[in-house]
Amino acid sequence: IHILALVFVQSNFVEPPTPDTSLRSLSETQTRLPCRYQPEKGERVVQVTWAKELPEGNKEQIITAHFTDGHTEFGRYSGRVKFESSSPTENSALLIPSTEVSDEGTYTCHISTFPNGNFEMSIILTVWSLPISSLDPVILEEGQSFRVAATCRAVGRPLPRLSWDTDLPGQSQNRTSEGGGSVSSHYSLHPLRGMNGKKLDCLVWHPGLDGPRRISNLLVVQFPPDATISASPGDWYVGMEKAELVCESGGYPKPQNVTWTWRGGALPDGVSAVGGKLFFGRALRTNDSGVYGCVVRNNVGVGKTEYLLTLTETSPRTGDSSEDNLLLIIIGASAGALVMVLIIIVLLVNRYHRHRNKKLEMELSEKTEEINSLSRQASFRRLNSVSTDPRVQVKKKTKTKNE
Asked: Where are the transmembrane segments (predicted)?
């Protein structure tokens, strides 16, 4: 009869709208279990009770509210749950402010009415917990055998899935704990120095996450140093100033211990070492030649190298200076000769123009004199033709007599 009554009035539950309701929540967050009964005309809700079904089939009371006597919390739920509304008989939704995984189960909202009796609706609650993950890297050394380079672990509900994001050649192996509450993944490889500093990230997958959670990690592979010595550029000679040798070393971790030797022993006087640099604090001497050694160490191994220093008696720059001076002399002489040629050309051009102008003046003067001479001669001829010709005078006299 009770079940029939429940089914008959199930539609009076306006929240949730369906009789079979499943909810999902995350641990450490607030969970709301809806329950609102709409009484019929002349019907009144007098009491609301929430209960949780136990594995053996019994029900454990959580909280109850009477329309006149107030509400009561029971047992381990005291202080952990509360009604959403100050009027629980009208809005009977239950709140769990900080949900725990143990809160997962089936909850029943029991409504007591007058005069129609009791009615129930159930909600199945699933509680997820977001994964808690960690990554444990392993410091490797070059030359070791195939072994684990990093381990990634995660716990969550449901169980997370782990994968690796890397370009390193290796293999991963996943394991689940006996209780099924945690998962781990081991990534193994054969360590080489070229792998040092390469990406080896762990990805944690879970349905409660929008995407994979990345745990960033860089592989660490330690290897011994390789030492090399470089010298100041150019030939080294007796009397050279500010000379230095530099010991460069690879390796990881970077070597901090650098030792210099000369001919297998102590350094010459006036020569000092500061880390990877060897300074000659004075001009080079003939006896500074010989084998200089550099030894570098890190926690993995040792690197050694030698450099044979040979000195010349004179600076190679002296010959260069003579050649440079000779070149400057040649350039200067060529420039001087070019200037002299230009001066001579200018003088010759000037002399040519003066000679030409003088010749033109003489020709002009001769022409002027010639013109003047011809003019005078013409004048004399006209004069003589008028006043000195006897034939003219005789004709004039004869004409007079005849008259």
From this structure: 326-349
Phi first, then psi, for residue 279 (nearest 5°) are -105, 135
CATH class of 138-222: mainly beta
**Domain 2-128: CATH superfamily, name plus number:** Immunoglobulins (2.60.40.10)
Give the whole-angstrom CA distance, residue 205 versus residue 194.
Answer: 30
Quote the CA–CA distance of 108 and 313 in Å, as a whole number: 104
Q: Residue range 12-34: average pLDDT?
A: 90
**Which tokens belong to 71?**
């509400």
pLDDT tens-digit map of 274-326: 989 999 999 999 999 999 999 999 999 999 999 999 998 876 555 455 555 66
| Contact present, 264 and 340 (Cβ < 8 Å) | no
**Looking at residue 282, what is its pLDDT?**
94
User: What pTM does this model have?
Assistant: 0.66
The mean pLDDT of 8-26, rounded to a whole number, is 78
**In the chain, which segments carry CATH 2.60.40.10?**
2-128, 138-222, 227-309
User: What does the pLDDT read at residue 107?
Assistant: 96
Higher-confidence residue: 262 or 386? 262
Q: Which CATH class is domain 227-309?
A: mainly beta
What is the CA angle 256-261-262, rounded to 5? 155
What distance in Å separates the CA atoms of residue 204 and residue 191, rounded to the nearest whole number? 25
Burial 256-279 (b: 16+ CB within 10 A, else e): eebebbbeeeebbeebebeebebe
Strand partners, 32: 95
211: which 2 tokens?
């995407």
Please report which residue ranges of 64-189 form alpha helices under DSSP H. Answer: none
Question: How far apart are the C-alpha atoms of 5 and 113, rounded to whole Å?
Answer: 12
**What pLDDT was estimated at residue 315?**
63
The string of pLDDT tens digits covering residues 68-98 is 888 999 999 999 999 999 999 999 999 999 9
**Pairing between β-strand 36-37 and β-strand 94-96 as defined by DSSP bridges:** unpaired
As a 3-state breakdown, the chain gives helix, strand, coil percent values, each rounded to 5, of 25, 40, 35
Which among 217, 252, 222 has a CA at the least distance from the CA of 137? 217
Spatial distance between the Cα atoms of 197 and 140, rounded to a whole number of angstroms: 12
User: Is 118 in contact with 61 (CB distance < 8 Å)?
Assistant: no
